[in-house]
UniProtKB/TrEMBL annotation:
Pfam families: Usp
SUPFAM superfamilies cross-referenced by the UniProt entry: Adenine nucleotide alpha hydrolases-like
Record domain UspA: where: 6-149
CDD domains for this protein: USP-like
Protein name: UspA domain-containing protein
InterPro entries: Rossmann-like_a/b/a_fold, UspA
Annotated source species: bioreactor metagenome
Amino acid sequence: MTKPVERIMVYLDGSEGSILAMRLAVVLADFMGAELYALSIVNTRALSDLVQSHIFLEAEREEYRKELFDDGARYLNHAVEMGRKKNIFVKGVNVSGSIAMGIKEKVDELGIDLLVMGPPPRIRSRRDALFDELESAMRTVDCSVFIARNEERIEKLYREL
């Protein structure tokens, strides 16, 4: 019989919710015997919007992109370490592009069966809801999506692993 979940991916953005999702993904990978991937995305679409809005100069874009890439690398190193502490191998992936498309492309490319994400941020307006890239990713990926909630329970499961 084929395992229901062979590959899990967690999206990391440095938020507390994404760290909670990473802990849950480590627990699930152990329980299901699944491969675990951690994904960080440098949001180049947002960078372009900042340049077009004259918030950044073109020259500042590359410097900020590098800072974002370095932040992503730190998130991934932390994720790998979280897995290592529980004897789970985590493959870190750092890409550039829009968040929604980056998640969708990696899910397809890696054959991901389960995407684990932190709870979505509170929506402040209809416009925010319309343009929320994480929600768009959740709605369009071709795999099941698991939203990490109940911090106390997830922390307990992770500690007991």
